[in-house]
Amino acid sequence: MDLGDRWPLSGSTDLRDQLLAAYAEETRGYHDTRHLAEVLDRLDELAAAGTPYDVGPVVLAAWFHDAVYDGERDAEERSATWAEDALPGLVEAGVVEEVARLVRLTETHRPADDDPNGCALSDADLAILAAPADRYASYTSAVRREYAHLDDDVFRDGRTQVLASLADKEHLFHTAYARERWEAAARANLERELAELDGLAP
């Protein structure tokens, strides 16, 4: 299916095309249109399994969650601001607020247990961690390309910090479905990558 056909709003194709263009920027490695499609696929998978969440704002948040991605720490904030600037008049004010909240949450992937929207989006975004070995390898290579401006030592230290923070979570995933289907594979991938990064340390 054409990714453009998965735009959740009726009309507003100019905004859709702006977002697709952002995800297609040449500087993107992992956080590209394929990533967007995979997050949408995982949200569909969660919904099909009966995972409760508000489809409208969560899918919109998926479209915006990496709208800005340039390797800087405030990318999620700028993505959320884009949503706050672009969505008024297209959806209700409460939906704008929820989309922006969810986008900001993807900076930490630590939703509250009583936040079904946050749990669904976080799990869909992190589902790549449970990918089969070949897809996981292409994912890590793509992440490295996004940070090609960093030397190996700086990248290794930063990547290790990110992965260690995730590994320290009691659960990587927050929905019952994701914990059952994805948690074990994701833990194994994280442990393997952390060991590989440690082996590269001087």
Question: How would you describe what is shown here?
Answer:
This protein is mostly helical. The protein has a single domain (3-199), classed as Hypothetical protein af1432 (Orthogonal Bundle), CATH 1.10.3210. Helices cover 63% and strands 0% of the residues. It contains nine helices and no strands. It has helices at residues 13-23, 33-48, 55-64, 75-86, 93-105, 116-126, 133-146, 152-167, 176-199. The longest helix has 24 residues, at 176-199. The N and C termini lie far apart (46 Å). The model has no long low-confidence stretch (mean pLDDT 94).
Structural class, from secondary structure content?
mainly alpha
Q: What is the average of the pLDDT values?
A: 94
Number of strands: 0
CATH superfamily: Hypothetical protein af1432
Q: Biggest sheet: strands, sense, closure?
A: none
Query: Can you tell me the CATH topology?
Result: Hypothetical protein af1432
CATH class: Mainly Alpha
Give the topology string: H per helix, E per strand.
HHHHHHHHH
N-to-C CA distance: 46 Å
- Approximate strand percentage: under 5%
* Count of separate structural domains: 1
Helix content: 55-70%
Query: Rounded to an integer, what's the Rg over CA atoms?
Result: 17 Å
**Low-confidence parts, pLDDT < 50 over ≥5 residues?**
none
Shape: globular
CATH architecture assignment name: Orthogonal Bundle
The DSSP helix count reads 9
Layout of helices and strands:
Layout: H1 13-23, H2 33-48, H3 55-64, H4 75-86, H5 93-105, H6 116-126, H7 133-146, H8 152-167, H9 176-199
Q: Which properties best describe this structure?
A:
202 residues, mainly alpha, Hypothetical protein af1432
